[in-house]
Design brief:
477 residues; alpha/beta; 9-stranded mixed beta sheet; 19 helices; 19% strand; binds adenosine-5'-diphosphate
């Protein structure tokens, strides 16, 4: 039995802004059959404390970065949670990361330093007799764990730290004069540890302090070592190259199951897909059409290539294709998409975050679009594969690793599962949409693609084994 303390700022189904939450929420159940007992340390945001009621206080802090705090052990949504109840840091309305003006909460460095500190404290002192063998941190919010392990321990007995990068774009950087407030050891404010261009950098602390680093696909792991994708961390990652691996995310096969999904008429056959598509068209006010109904569910940001979609869309519409889109994010993209929808009958846009609708969309679409400029793993293309909703994806990160492009060889070998495009430009995307329309117009080719897609394994089995192996490696030293 290996005990692992997972440390993260999000965890589905309790609190989620993106794929990080899905992974953190899925890992414990995926790893349990492999002899890994995982507990998840989460901030006590209102969303978490509302769902994870009660519990037992297992750690108390008289002053944790400016106020009293406790850690409560509680079971919720099938997860063994350790909730960091620190009202001065986490009990506030609105977004977990942003204030009313859409800016980072000014005390985000302290908020997530506190999370990392609590993790290190539990790793060294245990919580109600439970002591982890490994600490597994996710993204910059857990980056300072190795620093606090260093500060709190005798240096001999601290458990190894595994660090997973879900998105390198967020660094958790703050001014160099906050060393004391963040309880960091000033001697280590150097380029070898967490200093980055004169600032304190949480993700760098994690990258330099981890025994092993992984990210959520092999292609993204390689991309991260280049200036184009490394976002300034490429040098740090090149230096850790031998300790860096990629493990692709899985999806929850019970939650994303076309045969049991309560959001749609069940379908085991192509007929069911037709029904789900009809219902989706009705929901989005789209007329009938012979072209493919393309869907997209995403944060609306430049990372996700939404501007490329806006430019490439005329190609799809020119062939009778349609778009049903659900997302929220940058205001200018939201406005541009709503404008498109008002101009074209074949475009339906819903701005917002809606899990149930996302199921109906994935189920009802013919194809799911993921034109991301970078994509560590990506989940919606995996949902698409499972639902026979053919992915059209940029050739980057996890999209490159999880979709097999429908070139003639892959079609002939019955291996193709989707359409990929490269370079990641509006032109190339536009051409991919035309290729999609060509395939859609050939019923045999289309049925083949859908069948191949639905056969592709997208669950956690292989990846959970890879994580378990990673823990075994760090435990061996
Ligand atoms: P990222 O983590 O970069 O946002 P991923 O593809 O890894 O991208 O994960 C996004 C997750 O969030 C998926 O589960 C996706 O279905 C979900 N999601 C994104 N936007 C919405 C939305 N507007 N409504 C419902 N679910 C959404």
């Amino acid at each position: 039995m290996t005990r692992v303390l997972s440390v993260a700022s999000e965890c589905a189904p309790l609190v989620k802004t993106g794929g990080l939450a899905d992974v953190v929420g899925a890992l414990p159940a995926a790893l349990a059959p492999l002899g890994v007992e995982m507990r998840t340390l989460l901030p006590g945001y209102p969303a978490v404390t509302a769902k994870a009621k009660g519990g037992k206080v297992v750690v108390r802090f008289d002053d944790l970065f400016g106020g009293k705090a406790t850690v409560k052990a509680v079971t919720a949504a099938g997860l063994e949670l350790l909730v960091l109840d620190a009202p001065h840091l986490f009990d506030r309305p609105g977004s977990i990361y942003l204030n009313d003006e859409g800016l980072d909460w000014s005390d985000n460095p302290e908020r997530f330093a506190a999370l990392s500190y609590a993790a290190a404290f539990i790793a060294i002192n245990g919580a109600d007799g439970w002591k982890p063998d490994v600490v597994h941190g996710h993204d910059w919010q857990a980056g300072f764990v190795p620093e606090y392990l260093h500060g709190l321990s005798d240096g001999e007995s601290d458990p190894p730290f595994v660090f997973t990068i879900h998105n390198i774009a967020f660094h958790g950087t703050t001014s160099g004069d906050r060393l004391e407030t963040l309880k960091l050891d000033g001697w280590r404010f150097t380029a070898n540890h967490y200093e980055f261009w004169g600032q304190i950098c949480a993700i760098k602390a994690g990258l330099t302090g981890a025994a092993k680093i992984n990210t959520v696909s092999q292609t993204y792991a390689e991309e991260l070592m280049t200036p184009q994708f490394g976002m300034g961390m490429e040098g740090v990652l090149q230096a850790r190259k031998t300790d860096l691996t990629g493990i692709v995310n899985g999806i929850d096969l019970d939650v994303w199951n076309p045969e049991t999904d309560s959001e749609i008429a069940r379908y085991k056959t192509a007929k069911g897909k037709v029904k789900a598509k009809k219902a989706l068209r009705a929901e989005f006010g789209l007329p009938d059409s012979d072209g493919p109904l393309c869907v997209l569910v995403s944060r609306l940001t430049s990372q996700k290539g939404i501007d490329l979609l806006i430019d490439a869309l005329p190609n799809l519409l020119s062939r009778g294709g349609q778009l049903a889109l659900l997302g929220s994010g940058d205001t200018d993209l939201e406005v541009a998409l709503l404008e498109l929808a008002s101009k074209h009958d074949g475009v339906g846009v819903k701005i917002g975050y809606d899990e149930a609708l996302s199921h109906r969309i994935i189920a009802g679409g013919d194809a799911i679009l993921v034109p991301s400029r970078f994509e560590p793993c990506g989940l919606t293309q995996l949902y698409g594969l499972r639902y026979g909703t053919v992915p059209v994806v940029a050739l980057t990160g996890g999209l490159a690793d999880t979709v097999i492009n429908a070139n003639p060889a892959a079609m002939a070998m019955d291996a193709a599962t989707g359409v990929q495009f490269s370079p990641v430009t509006a032109d190339a995307f536009g051409n991919a949409l035309l290729r999609l329309c060509d395939l859609f117009e050939e019923p045999n080719a289309w049925a083949k693609l859908q069948r191949n897609a639905m056969k592709q394994p997208v669950g956690w089995e292989t990846s959970a084994a890879a994580y378990s192996d990673l823990y075994a490696q760090v435990l061996k030293g």
